[in-house]
Specification:
Pfam families: HTH_34
InterPro entries: WH-like_DNA-bd_sf, WH_DNA-bd_dom, WH_DNA-bd_sf
Distance between the termini: 19 Å
Number of helices: 5
Strand order of the largest sheet: 1-3-2
Protein name: Winged helix-turn-helix domain-containing protein
């Protein structure tokens, strides 16, 4: 098996998780509603993907109140950033390898 295939991370296989991490790589801190609107996901679907990424320690959650309203923000951890970069590098190598073969 090619070495770059070993770095494809199953945690990022879904469109939702790939999108979440992509947003968090660009913006240091993103709130739940922004992610929901950007990725066009339902509350439950987004919450389940966020929970999976949190359990993998790829993101952390910060809950606070802004005025009287609860506000939840998400941040990519250093571990999450490195894992995502490795995943993207592996995908890039896969794409380049397939282009060379054709």
């Amino acid at each position: 098996m090619k070495s770059y295939l070993e770095n494809i991370n199953k945690a990022f296989e879904s469109r939702a998780r790939l999108g979440i991490m992509s947003v968090l790589m660009v913006d240091e801190r993103v709130d739940f509603n922004t992610l929901k609107d950007t990725l066009q996901l339902t509350d439950g679907n987004l919450a389940s993907h966020l929970r999976a990424l949190e359990e993998a320690q790829y993101l952390r959650v910060e809950k606070q109140f802004v005025g009287r309203k609860p506000n939840t923000t998400y941040h990519a951890t250093d571990l999450g950033r490195e894992a995502f970069k490795s995943h993207l590098d592996a995908l890039e190598q896969l794409i380049l390898s397939n282009r060379k073969d054709n």
